[in-house]
Hints:
The protein is mainly alpha-helical. Among the domains are: about 1-55, no CATH class; about 155-230. The chain is built from three helices and three strands, in the order E-E-E-H-H-H. The protein has a three-stranded antiparallel β-sheet with strand order 1-2-3, with no helix packed on it. Helix 2 (about 60-195) packs antiparallel against helix 3. It is rod-shaped.
Amino acid sequence: MADCVIATDKVPSRVVSVDSGSNRAGANGDKLYLTRFSKDEIEGWRLERIGDATGEDEYTRLLRQQLKVSKTELVEDKSKLKIVEEQLAVTMEELTNLRSELNEATAELEEQREALDQAEEELSGATEKASEQEMMIVEKDRYISERDEIIRTKDAELAEKDRVISQLEEIARRSNERQPETIHRSSQHQSPRINRISPSPKPGVEAIAQAIQPRSSATTALSIKLAELGWESD
């Protein structure tokens, strides 16, 4: 007997045997012995029988079901993608703001760098000028020191000249004090002689010359000393 499938209200079953005969009452005693399909067998039976009966391929139905699931997942993915795009837009806006702030900071830094370079240049010029002024001050101090040394030397020379002049003036003064006595003595010694030689009443010229000679000698010594010291006598 070939396999056949009987569709019931519950589950499809396969006929496994047929027992023909009569029962005790003499009635028809044919019986059908059925066995239930397994899950895989039921699925295959549906594909073979029910699918053909309804005109719809089960594979197509599964594809449609998968397509529906895929569409649902696509909608969810689009929703997630939209959220990601919104977050990306916010991030891009923040990045744009940061880039703008960075450009401003870079411009400010460049201005500060230029100002710093200018300040360094001015400082270098001021330092060079201060160095030149310091050299001038050192040169002036050296010149002043030299002048002070010259002045001290001149003062020493003047002091020496004053001392010599004082000595010479003292010598001249003493010579002047001795002059009348010398003239007087000369007159006493020469008067008789003059009277004997000449009747002239005038004093002797030699006595006057001898009296003047010490003073002239002192003046000459003074002139020589002044010449040695670099002075010209009047």
